[in-house]
Specification:
Distance between the termini: 31 Å
Helix content: over 70%
Shape: globular
Order of helices and strands: HHHHH
Structural class: mainly alpha
Oligomer: single chain
Number of helices: 5
Number of strands: 0
Largest sheet: none
């Protein structure tokens, strides 16, 4: 669990940096220019990480075309959602995204699609997260 918490914290830090960048970026004629620049920097960082963290396993991109497309569309939808959420409501409304993300990722992807285990403590945590969105509204 401690490693999971460390990785989740790393992802949360990255997300906070992303939200900060979007909220602080100036509005231009093309409002998606921030995302384009951020994605370019992301691709460069992933390239460096792929070289630095090379493993023994090689990924066959041709056998993963469909899942790569699905993941890419998912990232695009996430970024568009972030753009409209933060542009219209601000970073405080991240809690709405976070709870909905918990529900869709944990229940739909984890439990229903991949049949991952889900214990009673996780059920209670999910209920409390849903209650947080009810209280927020």
């Amino acid at each position: 669990m401690s490693k999971a918490l460390l990785f989740a914290g790393l992802a949360a830090l990255g997300n906070a940096l992303f939200v900060y960048g979007q909220r602080r970026s100036s509005i231009a004629n093309n409002s998606f220019s921030y995302f384009t620049g951020a994605l370019l920097i992301t691709a460069i960082c992933f390239g460096v990480a792929a070289i630095a963290l090379r493993t023994q396993q090689e990924v066959n991109l041709f056998s993963n075309v469909l899942t790569t497309i699905i993941g890419g569309v998912g990232v695009f939808i996430t970024f568009i959602g972030f753009y409209f959420l933060y542009s219209n409501y601000g970073a405080v409304y991240y809690v709405v995204y976070a709870v909905l993300s918990i529900v869709t990722t944990t229940i739909v992807v984890g439990v229903l699609i991949f049949r991952e285990s889900f214990n009673q403590y996780q059920v209670v945590a999910l209920i409390l997260a849903i209650l947080a969105i009810v209280m927020f509204s």
